[in-house]
Amino acid sequence: MIKLQNVEKVYRTSSIETLALNNINIDVRKGEFVSIMGPSGCGKSTLLNIIGLLDAPSKGQIEIDGSPVERYTDKHLAELRNRKLGFIFQSFHLINDLSVIDNVEIPLLYRNTSAKQRRELAQEALEKVGLSNRMKHFPKQLSGGQKQRVAIARAIVGKPEIILADEPTGNLDSAMGNEILGILQKLNTDGATIVMVTHDEAMAKKTDRLIRLFDGTQVS
Amino acid sequence: MLSNYIKIAWKVLLRHPFYTFITLFGITLTLTVLMVVTSFLDHLFGPHYPENKRARSLYIASVIQTDSANTTMSSGPASFEFLMKYAKSLKSVERVAIMSNFSFSNAYANGKRIKLNTKYTDVDFWSVTDFEFLEGKPYDETNIRNADHVAVITDALRDQYFGNDAETVVGKTIDIENINFRVIGVVKGSPPTRVYTYSDVYFPYTAPKSNYEGKGMRGRFVAIVLAKKPSDLPTVQAEFDSYIARIPRSDYSNNNQFNVLIVKADTYFDHFVTMFTRSDKDRITLYAIVGLVLLMIMGLPAVNLVNVNVSRILERASEIGVRKAFGAPSKALLWQFIIENVFITFIGGAFALILTFLVIQFINSSGWIAYADLTINLPVFLISILVCLVFGLLSGVLPAFRMSRLKIAEALKA
Prior knowledge:
The structure holds 2 protein chains of 2 kinds.
Chain A: E1 2-12, E2 17-28, E3 33-37, H1 44-51, E4 59-64, E5 67-68, H2 74-84, E6 85-88, H3 100-109, H4 115-128, H5 144-156, E7 162-166, H6 174-189, E8 193-198, H7 201-205, E9 209-214, E10 217-218
Parallel strand pairs in A: 3-8, 3-9, 6-7, 7-8
Antiparallel strand pairs in A: 1-2, 1-4, 4-5, 9-10
Chain B: H1 2-15, H2 17-45, E1 57-60, E2 63-66, E3 73-76, H3 80-86, E4 93-100, E5 103-109, E6 112-121, H4 125-128, E7 133-136, H5 141-145, E8 150-154, H6 155-162, E9 173-176, E10 179-187, E11 201-204, E12 221-227, H7 233-245, H8 249-252, E13 260-263, H9 268-276, H10 280-314, H11 317-325, H12 330-366, H13 378-404, H14 408-413
Parallel strand pairs in B: 6-11, 8-10
Antiparallel strand pairs in B: 1-12, 2-3, 2-13, 4-12, 5-6, 7-10, 8-11, 9-10
Helix pairs in contact in B: 1-12, 2-10, 2-12, 2-13, 10-13, 12-13
GO molecular function (chain A): ATP binding
Organism (chain A): Dyadobacter endophyticus
InterPro entries (chain A): AAA+_ATPase, ABC_transporter-like_ATP-bd, ABC_transporter-like_CS, MacB-like_ATP-bd, P-loop_NTPase
């Protein structure tokens, strides 16, 4: 489903060159729940951004669902992100000016979906995360756990095959974190392939496979 | 999608009221200036009282005698005889009116001097124009034939000469330059910006001092040619051109000084532009200058707004990152920010429309231009909307382009 070969990421400034990722080789199969672990600054989020096509590698190849993406145009990459990928961020990244349901609808705005259909799909997604009673609320009126559930609803509303979660429980207490993990496990059971960045060993152990990074290098 | 964009734009406006106030103030002021200018241009060139039929009118206002090298030139209005011969005889028209350029006279009322603009016209002048007769009627062919000392005056002159309380003035006498004229009608005056119909007093062309019998091509008269319908204008122009082309050179060469005669029946706008431009090149230069001035009026505040917009949109880097992460192509984001900016511009445009209405009411009632009738009619309104759109695009495209190019990972860190 996701294949990374010899991926390298270098950040360059006029005076410094930083190797953020070095020779990463990952193969995530369809329906797998994989976690990426490592200490702060080891390149976890960079790796997830590269898997999610939010950032380009300096070297190496990426294949999503069997297709190499190096030569994809901006438009094509956007379409791939829209159709195949769903993102969950540590700091939720909800748009405060939009209501919960409008936030959830965002991925559908970039498809040929009617307003009515968008509303129905967004309601369905919110029901899945148990927030159908908060549709008209605004992000600022929600708790951290509720915000993350809205973010999950937004990630799954377009029914993507892959969900990428960057420390989804990082800003939540353990009870809320477990609840979020439970939702992710349920989505995985329903068929979604999930890649989750975490620094919580206990969370990582509940996933199918663990990839460890240290100083930008894959250690397991 | 559109409602989503507009919802966001509205929320962003409410987020920083003072910022919004400054932005809208700038937009409103700029658009007000442009809308007032548009209304004034419409006042100058549009079909308004008493020249309501401008859409199917052609103006013959000048006779130009020149040489082929364009080194010497003599120009001015036509003679009455010339217009009778070459304009009145046009076959493809509904009617042709001949009138003098305005001249000045004095009248005295209760020992006080009244400065007057006077105009000599034929009978058709009253059919080609749409003057509103407040009392009485225009002079007719009999008055012309008999060279009657009759006059049509404006309501303003009536009030000045006979006083505000005069019940009816038709049949009364007005003394202009020691000649007594019988008032035959009173019309609602026209603004001085309509030079071919503006006057305080209108006399039949056979009245004293009109000089209508002057010989030669040049004199003090102009003609308004009224076509049956606007689409007939090219036919009428072609017919008139063919008449002019047949004039023997001896009639205008002035002892071989001139070998080119230029007399055009132009629409009011073309005729106006021709006054300032002699060739197509001049005309392009004039349009370029006007275009540049308009662009400057819009461009300078737009540049300012670009800066405000960039900082306003930068606040939303995270939103840009999220939208891109969920599949928004750069083009969609470009459009989002352009639409938002156009939306804000239209809010400013709505305020500007209200302000323009107040400004033109003020101009109309201030007396700066007598009988000023500036309006916000459909053409002015549509042009205003177009101006809003251009301004919105001008100030929105650059920031939108910059923002849509933001790298996702960096935008999400913001």
